[in-house]
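job 3f2a | input accepted
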Amino acid sequence: MRQLMCFICALGNFVIGFGQETNLFISPQKTTSLIFPYPIRHVDRGTKDVLVQSVKEADNILLVKAASQNFPKTNLSVVTEDGSVYALAVAYGEPFSWVYYFSPQVKMPVSAYANSILDNPKTVIGIRDASWDMIARLIGIYIKDDVIFYQLQFINQSSIDYGINFLRFYIRDKKRAKRTALQEAELKLLYTAGNLKEVKANSQNTVVVALDKFTIPDAKYLAIEIGEKNGGRNLLLKVNNRRIVKAIILPDLK
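job 3f2a | predicted structure (254 res):
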């Protein structure tokens, strides 16, 4: 009976959803399966000592194992389709279980905050670009905990639909010396809300993009690039740190 009770307790540990931070032990010889309540959108490893592989047949499952032995403690972050971020502390050791189920997070996900500000009135002025009757504007910057939200407005004043090929965020140098390559770091998007596929002729779209919180050194700026699919109306917005640090704090959603 005592052995049966121990088995039940262990079983409960691996089927009950974890909180936002979880300790995970991995080794090179065994693969651990992480099962999330929603499809996985993004995975970030602290170091290359952690090997991860998605499952084509099930986009909510992540396979994890160690690339080497006795590696220093690191971390693993997983962003799911609903905008939730699951943070795991990863260490070398014998896995407690080979399958872990994660329950939906109780706190409001990033997606809820992104969608809640889609229709907010403009709070930022002066950051815009235009090309052949296509206009892009940054109209709001918001922050909640460790996530920053950029509210963008696309206005198509032409009679031709504007297909969006890409939307990218970079940290770039303000100046560079001649014969020196451009230094830039692309930022990974956590979540996007709104229509990011197309801006119909004579219409407008509003999009909210969520990224990890960051600030920018004085010698750099945030570049937001929008590219047209099968077209040349590419747009560029430049945002300095003075604008970012004035981000509006979002209240808790209920």
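job 3f2a | Helices lie at 2-15, 110-116, 241-244.
job 3f2a | closed
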